[in-house]
Amino acid sequence: MMNLEKLIRPNIWKLKPYSSARSEFKGEASVFLDANENPYNYPYNRYPDPLQRELKEKIARIKSVRASQIMIGNGSDEPIDLVFRIFCEPKEENVVAIDPTYGMYEVCADINDVEYRKVLLNNDFSLDADRVLQSVDKHTKLIFLCSPNNPTGNLLNREEMLKIVTQFQGIVIIDEAYIDFSTEKSWLTDIDNYPNIIVLQTFSKAWGLASVRCGLAFASEEIIGFFNKVKYPYNINLLTQEFVSKQLEKEDDKNQWVKTLVEERSRMKKELEVLPLVEKVYPSQANSLLVKVPDANSTYKYLVDKGVIVRNRNSISLCLNCLRITVGSPEENSSLLNELKVYK
Ligand SMILES: *Cc1c(COP(=O)(O)O)cnc(C)c1O
Q1: Ligand 1 centroid vs 219 CA: distance in angstroms?
Q2: Computed from CA positions of residues 305, 310, 313, 314, in that sequence, does the dihedral angle turn out positive or negative?
Q3: Are 224 and 146 in contact (CB under 8 A)?
Q4: CB of 202 closer than 6 angstroms to any ligand 1 atom
C-alpha cells in the first residue's frame, strides 16, 4: 500500500494553509463583513468560491467521478507545477518522464530545481515500462506518462502503463489532454483502484477552450487535499467558474467537433501519405499528426511563407525531420494539403 506521508514533502505535509474569509465561513448570511470586500458592484465585489464547488459538481457528473477527486487549475500547467511543489524536494529528488513528450514537465522540473530523467521511447514511440522502471531510484517521486502522447500522437500501451503504476512506489501522472480524440478508455475509472495515480485532463483541446485556461487533475481525495493546500486560494476566478459551467452544456457540440476532427485526421493521414514529399505519417489518436519529411526545416519555412504554420519538431528526440501538424477545420486542412501538393 502507498504511504502518502513518505511521498509528500515534509514542509507540505505539515503546512498550515492560508485560511481565507470565504473558507472560514461557508454558510448563508445576509451581511458579509468578513473579507474586506467592497459592498458595491455585485457579484464581482465578492471573492469567488476557493474550491469551485458548483463547477466541480457538474464536472463530476460528466466525468463520473466524485467532486472530492477533482482539482481545477489555471490550465493543466498549474497542477503540473503543483506536483513538483507537493512531492519533490529541490536539489535532492528526481522525476522520470518518457522522451519525447510534452515540454512543460521538464520546464516545471527546472523551475523547481528537481532533476528530470528522460527515458527514450522505442523507435515507434511505444513505451518500454522496464526501461522506465530501471531509471527509478530511491529519490524518484514522480513518473510522467502522456497518452495519447505529444508530439507523437500515439497511445501508450495500457499493460505497460499498468506495470509502471503497480510497480513504482511513487506517484504516476497520466496526462490525458487528448483522450477525447482516442478510442482508449480513460484512467479516470481507475482512480479508486490505484491511489498513486494523478490523471490530467483539460478544457483546452476537445472542448475548444484554450483561451479560458482551465485544466483538471483527478486523484484520490487525499491527494486532492494537498493540491488544495498548496494552490493559490482563489486560483479560478468567478468569470471562469461561471463561463466553464455554462460551456459544459455544450457537450453535444464538443462531441461533434471531436467527430469531425477525428474524420479529418484520417483524411489528412491518407492524403499526406501519398505525397512524394512525405516519408511517414505516424499513427495518431490525438488532434495532430507527426509527419516525417526529407528536410523538416525547409518544409517548415516553405509553409510559413505560404501563411500555414505547423510545429517544427526536428530537434526533439526521435523526431528528426518531423513536423507536428494540428488537425484543423476541413478548409484549413485542405489549405495545408494544397500547399504541400505543389511543393517543389
Ligand atoms: C495541450 C496540452 C495540455 C494542456 O495544457 P493546458 O495548460 O490545460 O492548456 C496538457 N498536456 C499536454 C500533453 C498537452 O499537449
Answers
A1: 17
A2: negative
A3: no
A4: yes
Q: Is the CB–ligand 1 distance for residue 146 below 6 Å? A: yes
Whole-number Å distance between alpha carbons of 34 and 42: 16
DSSP code per residue over 117-133: EEEEPPTTS---HHHHH
Nearest to 67 by CA among 78, 77, 58, 79: 58
Biggest alpha carbon distance in the chain? 72
Mean pLDDT for 94-123 is 98
- Ligand 1 atom closest to the Cα of residue 101 is 13
Could you read off the pLDDT of 21-74 as tens digits, one per residue? Answer: 888 888 889 999 999 999 999 999 999 999 999 999 999 999 999 999 999 999
pLDDT 10s digits, 7-22: 999 999 999 999 888 8
Burial bucket for residue 334 (CB in 10 Å: 0-12, 13-18, 19+): middle
Please write the tens of the pLDDT for every residue from 330-341.
Answer: 999 999 999 999
Per-residue pLDDT averaged across 83-89, rounded?
98
**What average pLDDT does this structure show over 215-222?**
98
Q: Alpha helix locations (H) across 147-220? A: 158-167
Under 8 Å between Cβ of 162 and 190: no
Q: Ligand 1 centroid vs 204 CA: distance in angstroms?
A: 7
Cα-flanking dihedrals φ and ψ of residue 15, to 5°? Answer: -60, 135
> The pTM is what?
0.97
